């Protein structure tokens, strides 16, 4: 009898718990994830709309007679398209891609298109990812995307090297959308590990912009390469937040809302500490740019705001129950909203009328700020005891250590060096101000009077 009386109480507790979860999820919006991030500047965000248009150009069969050009066109010269490969030429192992020589922006661009829902080969690449199957560069990565990245590098490194030698001051930009974004993110790591094949190209001349990427690398890699790889996410986009097997997602396209609800419930019930300790859990790569244009309980779209950070914990961990979760993934919408955001930034720039010298100083400050944020993220990963995390980058992208110190030293060694330097400077200060007599007493030197204040 006593057990039977307790059943209604358990049912009430269960219903209250479910109601609380539904309430939190209905109130949870993508803006909460980045509300404490810093605002992106026009200088750092400028390439993104342009690169979105380059990705869209890969979809065209004839760039001289485009069929789906956005307002204003793609902004490219077909004469400087160095290479184009379709599904037949890639044998379905990589989505179609293009190499474009952008003289106006002094840039060599390799752009890869996104998932083609009508191509079985694209699904084969995206779904080739058994849990823990591929360990790479001290972390875990998506197996199918890594194989596609290696294939692109093996086929194109000679051509990229030749272009870099002809144009030694140009940067190398790797960009892609959705499936292509995951490929270029891992392609960037492959390229950085094989810089000797790229000739004069060094790490600071390589950039990656992954537009709406799939989660493709473990957290330690996502943070370690945040100085080179940038991910762009529009509001509620589901793919950078999808932690479950993508195979299950595409099997459930006809009941995707049900699957998203189950995934939300699972993520809500999983402790954050447990998620961070899982070395095989994959994440969106690099520095994150989050375009926010909608607010809870308000209708329509607002002027987009772009926030950026290198987060460690809270890196797009929760799916957003939104009717825009799939439409926000479309490259057309991302290009449109990113251009709107950039136009607003530039309008503010023109209103402020910043002198050229101050703009250069602002750009230098931005580089230093990104460097400090990047190093802080590496230290945060170590503090959270992320598997295989390191406290400092071994590549020295932003600034070299003083006096030729090895940047791969441990945090303990660096702190000991700092302590020794501080002690030496203090001892020198004491010797300059004080004398020690024969009896061991300390007295001020006569040639260093003490000023009274």
Structure in a nutshell:
This is Calmodulin-binding heat-shock protein. Residues 10-75 form the Mono-/di-acylglycerol lipase N-terminal domain. The chain has 14 helices and 15 strands.
Please characterize this protein's 3D structure:
By secondary structure, the protein is of the alpha/beta class. The protein has a single domain, classed as Rossmann fold (3-Layer(aba) Sandwich), CATH 3.40.50. It is built from 14 helices and 15 strands. The strands form four sheets. Strands 1-13-12-10-8-7-4-3-2 form a nine-stranded mixed sheet, with helices on both faces. A two-stranded antiparallel ribbon has the order 5-6. Strand 3 and strand 4 form a beta hairpin. Helix 3 runs antiparallel to helix 12. The longest helix is centred in the last third of the chain and has 28 residues.
Whole-number mean pLDDT: 80
Low-confidence stretches: 395-426, 447-453
CATH classification, class level: Alpha Beta
Name the beta content range.
Answer: 5-15%
What would you call the structural class? alpha/beta
Strand count, sense and barrel status of the largest sheet are:
9 strands, mixed
CATH topology: Rossmann fold
Distance between the termini: 84 Å
Question: Number of DSSP helices?
Answer: 14
Determine the CATH superfamily. Alpha/Beta hydrolase fold, catalytic domain
Radius of gyration: 26 Å
**Helix percentage:** 40-55%
Structural topology:
Layout lengths: L1 H26 L10 E2 L2 H4 L1 H12 L22 E5 L1 H4 L6 E6 L4 E6 L7 H8 L7 E2 L2 E2 L2 H24 L4 E7 L1 H15 L12 E6 L5 E2 H6 L4 E6 L11 H6 L4 H14 L2 H6 L4 E2 L3 E6 L12 E5 L21 H22 L3 H28 L27 H23 E3 L5 E3 L9
Parallel strand pairs: 4-7, 7-8, 8-10, 10-12
Antiparallel strand pairs: 1-13, 2-3, 3-4, 5-6, 9-11, 12-13, 14-15
Helix pairs in contact: 3-12, 5-6, 6-7
């Amino acid at each position: 009898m006593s057990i039977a009386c307790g059943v209604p109480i358990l049912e009430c507790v269960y219903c209250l718990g479910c109601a609380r979860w539904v309430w939190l999820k209905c109130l949870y919006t993508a803006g909460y994830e980045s509300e404490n991030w810093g605002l992106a500047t026009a200088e750092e965000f400028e390439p993104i709309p342009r690169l979105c248009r380059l990705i869209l150009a890969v979809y065209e069969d004839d760039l001289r007679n485009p069929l789906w050009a956005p307002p204003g066109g793609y902004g490219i010269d077909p004469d400087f398209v160095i290479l184009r490969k379709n599904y037949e030429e890639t044998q379905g192992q990589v989505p179609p891609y293009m190499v474009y020589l952008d003289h106006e922006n002094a840039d060599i661009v390799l752009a890869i298109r996104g998932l083609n829902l009508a191509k079985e080969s694209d699904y084969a690449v995206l779904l080739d990812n058994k849990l823990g199957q591929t360990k790479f560069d001290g972390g875990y990565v998506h197996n199918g995307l890594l194989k596609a990245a290696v294939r692109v590098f093996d086929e194109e490194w000679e051509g990229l090297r030749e272009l870099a030698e002809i144009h030694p001051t140009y940067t190398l930009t790797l960009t892609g959308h959705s499936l292509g974004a995951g490929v270029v993110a891992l392609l960037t790591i492959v390229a950085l590990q094989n810089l000797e094949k790229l000739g004069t190209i060094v790490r600071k001349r390589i950039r990656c912009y992954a537009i709406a990427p799939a989660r493709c690398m473990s957290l330690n890699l996502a943070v370690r390469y945040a100085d080179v790889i940038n991910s762009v996410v529009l509001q509620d986009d589901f793919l950078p937040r999808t932690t479950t097997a993508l195979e299950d997602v595409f099997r459930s396209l006809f009941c995707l809302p049900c699957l998203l609800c189950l995934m939300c419930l699972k993520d809500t019930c999983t402790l954050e500490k447990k998620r961070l300790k899982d070395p095989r859990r994959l994440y969106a790569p690099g520095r994150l740019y989050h375009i926010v244009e909608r607010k809870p309980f308000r209708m329509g779209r607002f002027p987009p705001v772009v926030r950026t950070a290198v987060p460690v914990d809270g890196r797009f961990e929760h799916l957003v129950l939104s009717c825009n979760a799939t439409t926000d993934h479309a490259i057309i919408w991302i290009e449109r909203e990113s251009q709107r955001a950039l136009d607003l930034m530039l309008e503010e720039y023109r209103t402020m009328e910043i002198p050229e010298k101050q703009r250069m100083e602002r750009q230098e400050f931005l580089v230093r700020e990104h460097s400090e944020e990047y190093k802080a993220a590496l230290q945060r990963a170590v503090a959270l005891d992320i598997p295989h995390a390191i406290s400092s980058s071994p590549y020295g992208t932003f600034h070299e250590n003083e006096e030729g110190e090895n940047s791969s030293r441990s945090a303990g060694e660096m702190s000991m060096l700092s302590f020794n330097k501080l002690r030496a400077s203090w001892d020198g200060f004491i010797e300059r101000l004080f004398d020690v007599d024969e009896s061991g007493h300390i007295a001020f030197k006569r040639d260093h009077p003490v000023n009274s204040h």
